[in-house]
Amino acid sequence: MLDMHSARRQMIDQQVRTWNVLDEAVLNVMAAVPREAFVPVAYRELAYADTAVPLAHGQSMLPPGVDGRILQSLDVRPTDNALEIGTGSGFFAACLAQLAAQVRTVEIYPDLAAGAASAIATMNLHNVSVDVADAMSCDAEAAYDVIALTGSLPIYDVRFERALKPGGRLFAVIGQGPAMTATLITRTHSGDCLRESLFETVLDPLIHAAGPSGFVF
Fold it and tell me: CATH number for the domain including 194?
């Protein structure tokens, strides 16, 4: 039987920290959220492995180090209103909810959304809403302090930066394989958006995200 407490501690020390995640608030949250509660039963032994855990519909949980890097880069504050695009298992939303005031997470597949909502409910988190929707229909204006896209954008889509409040931060992975760029977009109080390249990674694209001619979804 896997000792989940020890596995969680090893995940923090051997995976998350080695991805240069040193923010104590982020480390504490990732150490507190029981990742195994969000992993499909068939893959429970992989809950704390340094890998993307498979989910239904060809989706997957992000590796722990990537979760940590996203949370750290967004500099989430206790007053923030946050949006996650791509709920998946619900683990990232559960972490985000312990750092932000309010979290809305959007998932296109109803069964994944239901599973995530159930796992989140076991943690008694009351500041998370799980919605079934197509992220590419997002038309919010200046509604969120923090937005995390957990799937990539083959071609950058400005609709998400428009949803940022002044001072808001957006995490997006932009481009196509073999190397995509994890990017932080910050909306200034004058309305401009500044980009900062963070690291290279590879993520599957968001469902229905626009791509170059001939791109297959």
Answer: 3.40.50.150
